Amino acid sequence: MAMSAVARDTVFALRRQIAKIEGTLPERLEAPARGAPGAGKVRSGFPSGIAEKQIPVDAAGSEITIVRRGLAAASPDAFLHTGIERLDAALGGGLPKAALSEIHGLETRDAGAVAGFALSLTSLILREKPGLPVLWIGTAEIFREAGFPYARGLHALFGIAPEQLLFSEAPKLLDALWIAEEAARMTAFAAVILEIRGSPRLLDLTATRRLHARAHSASRPVLLLRQAGEAEPTAAPVRLIVSAAPAASRETVAGPLAGSIGRPAFTVDIGKSRTALPGQFTLEWNPDEHAFAERTENSVAVVPVPLRGADPAPASGAVLAFAAVGSSAAGDQPSRQQRPAHRGPRRAG
User: Which of 44, 103, 190, 337 is at 20 to 30 A from 265, Cα to Cα?
Assistant: First the structure.
């Protein structure tokens, strides 16, 4: 009995430490005080995303079943709020600050949208830590393919001074991962961004767990930008799939200005989250206020309306794949040059 009690306490301590590292400390891991009134039995064997059942016994001796799902013992300051209430509520408060967060672009053409969304989050991070720089790490391949952010645009669109964004170009992915791990543990950076192209073999669960552990221990956000890669398992608690959304017309005093291009917009899908269900949001970035705004409907016309009169295109009639039986249209008959080729025997050599 003594050995089983020691083993149970050891397992409980290990599970608590794992939940602490992951940044999700559910209420189910709070061990009830021994001998306290109402202390019941805690069952094990439930998945990590579902809280276990606690069966306390009240003074009358009746059992009360309490089921908790997805509750994490974390303060509101532990999350980076995007300013969109629906998105923050879906993520359980926002993006975790002391964690690894994955921003995924499915195709190469989404690289600009992924980088712009990461810079928007960086602007929100620097609002809380204005005096610290941000380190952007990548390989020569990714910087050659996607390019670098424009220095003047950083301050104009995101309020980021060019000297606050530092770049580290590594020759190989192994070097980039090592730089990211070392930078994630340093308190001199407000955040660390690691940009990777494709689905390399080195970016596995072990590598992402190390990044997540370093980010958690240093209480620092680490953003993993995945450009044109597959949605493979990682240790990031949150994965956001980002792509470009059609820009709405520019708003004026007289109303939307036709033919103009408004604020940059992003389509954000929650691909993975430990506290949220999959969902899709369309966000606009306000470069003047440096804040997100949610767009509920798309005001961009897909087909332009004709400027004068009605649509000149005639109404379509009956379309037949083959001519009717008995018709002998001249255009359907082969020409004289084609007749010998159709009727003559095929050459054997």
Answer: 190
Residues 81/267, Cβ–Cβ less than 8 Å: no
Strand order in the sheet with 134-139: 165-170, 134-139, 191-197, 222-227, 100-105, 238-245, 265-273, 280-286, 291-294
CB atoms within 10 A of CB 40: 16
Q: What is the pLDDT along the chain (349 residues), one digit of tens a residue?
A: 455 666 777 777 777 777 666 555 544 344 444 444 444 443 433 333 334 334 344 444 443 333 333 444 567 689 999 999 999 999 988 999 999 999 999 998 999 999 999 999 999 999 999 999 999 999 999 998 888 888 889 999 999 999 999 999 999 999 999 999 999 999 899 999 999 999 999 999 999 999 999 999 999 999 999 999 888 899 999 999 999 999 988 888 888 888 888 999 999 999 988 776 788 999 999 999 999 999 976 444 334 444 454 555 555 555 555 555 555 554 455 555 545 444 444 444 4
- Strands (DSSP E) contained in the chain are 41-42, 50-55, 66-69, 79-80, 95-96, 100-105, 134-139, 165-170, 191-197, 222-227, 238-245, 250-252, 255-257, 265-273, 280-286, 291-294
Say how far apart CA 119 and CA 159 lie, in whole Å. 10
Evaluate whether 186 touches 215 at the Cβ level (below 8 Å). Answer: no
Residue 109 CA, distance from chain mean position: 16
Specify whether the CB–CB gap between 194 and 138 falls below 8 A: yes
Q: Which DSSP helix (H) or strand (E) runs through 141?
A: helix 140-146
Name the phi and psi angles at 55, rounded to 5: -115, 85
Phi, psi of 150, deg, nearest 5? -75, 130
Q: Which residues contact 175 (CB under 8 A, 6 or more apart)?
A: none
Scanning the structure block, which residue is given the tokens 């940009």?
A: 195
**Which tokens sit at 98?**
């002391």
Residue with tokens 């994630």: 184
Residue 123 to residue 290: CA distance in whole angstroms:
7
Q: What angle do CA 142, 242, 187 make, to 5 degrees?
A: 65
